[in-house]
Design goal:
With 239 residues, the chain is mainly alpha-helical. 76% of the residues lie in helices and 0% in strands. The protein contains 13 helices and no strands. The longest helix has 17 residues, at 41-57. The radius of gyration is 21 Å and the shape is elongated. The chain starts with a helix and ends with a helix.
Length: 239
């Protein structure tokens, strides 16, 4: 017996939750074959949005943009579609277009901390560090009272912006707050805090933080770990 499009969409959404992106995409595709945009625009928009999420996770950003824009046209108020478009355009390296979509997402979901966090990252890439501070601060405020671990990213993001603005004391406070919440989840904060100490001329705490990063990071072969080892070698020459 053939399944209804609604049943296929429900299964596809479950596969998204299970991070089975290819299976979810196939289910959404099957559902869309059965849906009539003229009579079921809302259902089609939901399926296109879900299909776009699956494509995002599979790294198919250009295709994701097309289906997400179709979803937005069918149902402009659809929750999350502009956020997903922001992710897709960010994946394509189109910062200005990503910024535009994150802003549209916030017009519809002004209490979503994750959107502020993502938009703050775009501002950072554009060199708009004060705006990064504003968006990261809003994300931190919205995380207040929720699971604290979710705020480690915004604290690190704001710390990076403060560092660029040469507000070293504020940067140190934010990195320290992230590490206070969850030192393993926020291991990168040890690296970035170490760089602030170096800029302040505090060599011993800088080396301690860099070593702590190497102890906690899950990516000992990554770029940050390689940079850390090189910096430690240079610091040791000064001692």
């Amino acid at each position: 017996m053939d399944e209804s499009p609604q049943a296929l969409i429900e299964k596809a959404e479950l596969e998204l939750l299970n991070e089975q992106w290819a299976t979810a995409l196939e289910l959404f595709n099957r559902a869309l074959v059965l849906l009539n945009p003229a009579f079921m625009p809302s259902e089609v928009a939901e399926a296109e949005n879900g299909r776009g999420v699956a494509m995002l996770e599979l790294g198919r950003y250009g295709e994701a943009v097309k289906v997400l824009e179709a979803a937005a046209m069918l149902k402009p108020e659809l929750s999350g579609v502009y956020y997903n478009l922001g992710l897709a355009w960010e994946g394509l390296g189109q910062a200005d277009t990503a910024l535009h979509n994150y802003t549209k997402a916030l017009e519809r979901e002004p209490q979503d901390a994750e959107i502020y966090f993502r938009r703050g990252g775009i501002w950072f890439g554009l060199g708009e560090f004060e705006k990064t501070v504003e968006d990261a601060t809003k994300a931190i405020e919205l995380h207040s009272g929720q699971a604290e671990a979710a705020a480690t990213g915004p604290y690190i993001a704001r710390g990076l912006a403060y560092h660029q603005l040469q507000r070293y004391g504020d940067a140190l406070l934010d990195y320290s707050k992230a590490l206070e919440i969850d030192p393993r989840e926020a291991a990168d904060a040890f690296f970035y805090r170490g760089l602030v100490f170096i800029d302040r001329g505090d060599i011993l705490p800088a080396r301690a933080d860099l070593q702590a990063f190497l102890t906690l990071t899950d990516d000992l072969d990554g770029v940050l770990a390689e940079q850390t080892r090189e910096i430690i070698q240079e610091l040791d020459k000064l001692s």
